[in-house]
Amino acid sequence: xxxxxxxxxxxxxxxxxxxxxxxxxxxxxxxxxxxxxxxxxxxxxxxxxxxxxxxxxxxxxxxxxxxxxxxxxxxxxxxxxxxxxxxxxxxxxxxxxxxxxxxxxxxxxxxxxxxxxxxxxxxxxxxxxxxxxxxxxxxxxxxxxxxxxxxxxxxxxxxxxxxxxxxxxxx
Length: 171
What we know:
Elements: H1 8-21, H2 25-29, E1 34-36, E2 39-40, H3 41-58, H4 65-74, H5 94-109, H6 114-122, H7 135-153, H8 162-169
Antiparallel strand pairs: 1-2
């Protein structure tokens, strides 16, 4: 897939949808939380939203693109640094528990539809046992795994998308 897989109309939808969510200070705070490698939680979530949109565009998959982007941006909205060890070991099972924390936070801070809720709750399948219910959820689940691989094995994984992500984040 190359950059042209996402047309101008989809780039506008991506920027508008992400920019609206990034007005929230808690979403912006995700830029301070490390996710994988040298990638922040916010950058990871932007990348998952972007690659999810690329997948549906490239393969002509009909879906609710706005919900796809919103769910992808909020899928890791857990708002804590899971790398920090504590006496209580509360983040020891982060892979299993963070979808629930992200969903609680997202429901508290945003109005979510059923697709967005499913994306956040089930993006860790098959690590968590309930499979995605909607095609948007499955696409985000797959894009999340792809992005995690990029972030673990490649430094500065999103150098090519940096300008687009800055525009979306308002920097």
